[in-house]
Amino acid sequence: MDGLPAGVVGFEASGEISADDYRDVVVPAIVDAAEAGEVRFLLVVRDFDGMSSGAVWQDLKVGTEHLGSWKRIALVTDIEWMKHLTSLFGWMTPGETKVFPLAEREAAAAWVAG
């Protein structure tokens, strides 16, 4: 994503997320952020058709390999089940987690950068 505050890694996901998406796009950005000091992650999800098993594995792997680097994660979505699950299980993710509606994308970017 362009136009994000300095130090924020952001992606807009749509459809199904594959292992290739994770390996080739998400993982390098998170590794770079972790090596710079901390991960501040913004994820915008307008529609979601799931994750391949390989993508789930990549997600778990990158999260645990850089456990101490995660600072904040902002999920921006209007998908009710995703907002609900993140609110219930966000405590299990490293760093702070907060959910924002799509209309508050700019507020999410400011929060995750703060």
UniProtKB/TrEMBL annotation:
Pfam families annotated for this entry? SpoIIAA-like
Classify the source by domain of life. Bacteria
Q: Where are the transmembrane segments?
A: none
Q: Which InterPro entries match?
A: SpoIIAA-like (IPR021866), SpoIIAA-like_sf (IPR038396), STAS_dom_sf (IPR036513)
The name under which this protein is listed is STAS/SEC14 domain-containing protein
Q: Which organism is it from?
A: Streptomyces mesophilus
Organism taxonomic ancestry: Bacteria, Bacillati, Actinomycetota, Actinomycetes, Kitasatosporales
